[in-house]
Amino acid sequence: MTHPNQRVGIFVDVQNLYHSAKNLYRARVNYRELLKNLVGDRQLIRAVAYVVKSEGILPPLPPKEGAKETAKDGEKTGDKPGNNGRGLSSEAAFFEALESAGLELRLKDLQVYADGFKKADWDVGMAVDAIRMAPFLDVIILVTGDGDFIPLVDYLKWGAGRLVEVAAFHRSASSKLKEAADQFVGIEDMPRVIMKSRNI
Predict the structure, then answer these.
(1) pTM of the predicted protein model
(2) What number is the average pLDDT over the span 100-109?
(3) Sign of CA dihedral 90, 91, 96, 102
(4) Alpha-carbon gap, residue 63 to 66, rounded angstroms
């Protein structure tokens, strides 16, 4: 049950959301509409997006029309592939879009080990932040379908006494995570949140 006096904190697992939208719907998420739908008439205190810095989270944007060719590796003068026409890479433009939607960014560099193994997750950081902010919130919304967050949900509910909502795509969300939350919200059920894209 929701009411206007509830203080809400939203924690977004961007990697999980991005890949779920891409693989299930060949689409992107409209984060501004996502926040609007999740908050409703309640008070948003903090909305944090957890992202990994690695050129590759998004496909390159098409080059601007009229860009001049150079002889070096097929690059465009003033508008390289992956550039949005304002000197930003597709990744930087994505981060900027997240911030303009009202999200506070928490950034982490992609770790690449000597054997080529890559590691990029925010599970522990996201959990620690949610626990730290819990005393100032009534409702904690975890935007992820990752079952690794079940212990966090249990702690926030039974240890911190908070209401916990989980928002994710039905088909990619852990069934046990859905059961653990006080409420599960299907992102695909929200109006104007899923944006179809030919460039994914």
Answers:
(1) 0.79
(2) 91
(3) positive
(4) 9
- Tell me how far CA of residue 119 lies from CA of 54, 109, 155, in angstroms: 11, 9, 26
Complete domains list, the chain, with CATH: 7-196 (3.40.50.1010)
**3-class state of residue 25 by DSSP:** helix
pLDDT digits (tens, 9 = 90+) for 9-68: 999 999 999 989 999 999 999 999 999 999 999 999 999 999 988 754 444 444 445 544
Q: Which residues pair with 140 in a beta bridge?
A: 9, 164
**Single-letter amino acid, residue 46:** R
The pLDDT mean for the chain works out to: 83
Please provide the distance, in angstroms rounded to a whole number, between the alpha carbons at the two ends of the chain: 37
Q: For 78-94, give one letter per residue: b (16+ CB within 10 A) or e.
A: ebbbbbbeeeebbbbbb
CA 165 to chain centre: 15
What residues contact residue 117 under an 8 Å CB cut-off, 6+ apart? none
Q: What six digits make up the tokens of 18?
A: 């991005």
Determine the Cα–Cα distance for residues 112 and 121; give it in Å rounded to an integer: 12
- What mean pLDDT is predicted for residues 168-184? 97
Q: Which pair of tokens denotes residue 51?
A: 């992202």
- Whose tokens are 């003068």? That residue is 77
Find the angle CA(95)-CA(96)-CA(102) to the nearest 5 degrees. Answer: 95
Sign of the C-alpha dihedral computed for residues 97, 133, 125 and 140 taken in this order: negative
pLDDT for the residue 195:
85
What is the per-residue pLDDT for 61?
Answer: 44
